[in-house]
Design goal:
It contains five helices and six strands, in the order αββααααββββ. By secondary structure, it is of the alpha+beta class. It has a domain at 12-36 and 72-152: Thiol Ester Dehydrase, Chain A (Roll), CATH 3.10.129. A six-stranded antiparallel beta sheet has the order 1-2-4-5-6-3. A hairpin with a 2-residue loop joins strand 4 and strand 5. The N and C termini lie close together (10 Å).
Length: 164
């Protein structure tokens, strides 16, 4: 149930392709997804990971530490990246990710995650794709960036499907 709730709540897929073939991934194409992280998301993530840092649960402590309010776990925010890849490329294998946490994300913030294809190489009828990854708070403030690599079974971009 936890996985289902994380994958199906408050998500808006967005696609931005630089190529003329809208259903085939090309270098430069960007896939995006928008999400609002809730109190329930933070609580459920904490249960699974056993990360009970009080900055995620105690507003006063978070403010005393210099934040505006309770924080969303950084790794929960970063989970948007494999979500974007797997929803468009079923059977993809996420093999690498580096992350630079720039600014906090607060419960209730609108976060847009994006992956941009930087390099695509074919290898044995599969595709190794290097991706630039970014998350923005309220569509303008960069909160997280990095690079990822995934092995895709195809470059055909499928429609996003959500679990009920």
């Amino acid at each position: 149930m936890f996985i289902r709730s994380l994958l199906s709540v408050n998500v808006l897929p967005l696609r931005s392709f630089s190529s003329s073939a809208l259903n085939i991934l090309k270098t430069g194409d960007i896939l995006r997804e928008r999400r609002v992280f809730t109190n329930e998301d933070v609580l459920e993530y904490s249960k699974v990971t056993h990360d009970s840092n009080p900055l995620h649960f105690d507003s006063e402590l978070a403010r005393n530490a210099g934040f505006e309010g309770r924080l969303v776990h950084g790794m929960l925010v970063a989970a948007l990246f494999p979500r974007i890849i797997s929803s468009h490329f079923p059977g993809a294998v996420y093999v690498y990710q580096n992350l630079n946490f720039k600014l906090p994300v607060y419960i209730g913030d609108k976060v847009t995650g994006e992956v941009q294809a930087m390099c695509i190489k074919e290898n044995k009828k599969r595709y190794i794709v290097k991706l630039k990854t970014k998350c923005f708070r309220n569509d303008e403030i960069l909160v997280l960036d990095g690079e990822a690599m995934a092995i895709l079974p195809s470059l055909a971009v499928e429609q996003v499907s959500y679990l009920d």
